[in-house]
Structure formats: C-alpha cells, structure tokens
Amino acid sequence: TQLLEQSPQFLSIQEGENLTVYCNSSSVFSSLQWYRQEPGEGPVLLVTVVTGGEVKKLKRLTFQFGDARKDSSLHITAAQPGDTGLYLCAGGGGGFKTIFGAGTRLFVKA
Amino acid sequence: DAGITQSPRHKVTETGTPVTLRCHQTENHRYMYWYRQDPGHGLRLIHYSYGVKDTDKGEVSDGYSVSRSKTEDFLLTLESATSSQTSVYFCAIGRTSGNRDEQYFGPGTRLTVT
Question: Do A95 and B100 touch (CB under 8 A)?
Fold first, then answer.
C-alpha cells in the first residue's frame, strides 16, 4: 500500500518566519501535487511537480520534488497570516490512483 | 474555478436513513471522484467515475454507492447511514495530461449522522 507521510502535522509560527514542510514516501510517483485547504472549503491545487529534482516557485512558496521522485518539500519564505491553512501533498500515477497525505496544518500569527 | 458545486452543503440525518449527495460540474470532465475527509486521515477515495455509467470502488467504498447517468452529475448514496459516516465529503474532477494528475475540488458537504 502506498503511503504519503507529511511532517510536521501542525506548525504555529510568527509572521515573517520561514518554514519547510515535508512529504515522504517509500514509493515512486509519476507526479506530485501540493494543495492548500482553508476552513470550510475544498483543497485548492497549488502546484504539480513531475521531474525528479524539479523546483517550482509560486511567489514566496518553493516546491521541490526529490531526485528519486519519492518525496517533496514546500518552503515558505516570510510567512504571512494569509498562508494559514492545511497543506496537502498528493502522489499521482493515474487519477484514481492518487493518494493524499494527512496534511500539515499551518497557523501564522500576526 | 472548475465549476463544481455540491449539494447539500450541510446535512444532519439519523442512523439508518438513506442519504444522497450530489456533485455537479459544468466543464464536461470525464473523471469525477468522491472523497471523505476525517481528522488524521487526509482525503480517502470512496468511489470514482471515468465516464457515464462507468464507476469503480475506491479505498473506503463499503456502505456507499454511486451513480453517473449524465456527464455533469455524480451522485453519492449512503444506503443506510451510520455514525461512522459522519464526515466531510468532497467531490472532485480530474484533469490528466501525461504524468500530471490534477484534481479540482468542490466546496464539500458536511454530513452528521446522529
């Protein structure tokens, strides 16, 4: 059974701090997605990475796919209260084979 | 915005009653999914569809059935609701291109079974 483990499960930081969250697996994925979910809403796709070692940037968010395509990280620079939410990673291999991690809940205090 | 709506958004029902949740999309996507989200478990796939009348089971399908008679609508039915089915249910559509498997979610339905 494929599993995606996310760490930390919960993170509370002050505005302006940097942080990194991780998504790890023993399985290889053909692609990996990161989503952000705010309370009372559905997850929203942030980025997809498909190539081992790939780095993508979305404003202050930097996403990296591991060389072996088994893990990924999300780094946020100078976090802001608007970054608060649940961050989910998902590993793909064909739509109905996508699996989701349990998420990292981030709270950024002003 | 992928044009996905879910109804109802909130529902409280009693144990043993049947419940149907509706997902509607406006963009003619082939793939549609139903997930449930529970604390500590992330999103777990209940059923999915790859076309009209083409559906299959996901990871946690026991106690649930689905139907897709039109491309735009995907229905999830709890045949006899139990308290363990209290959860938030999300519908999603899938866009697949090469190795990219991207899903776009509806706003969710919060279901409470008393």
Answer: no
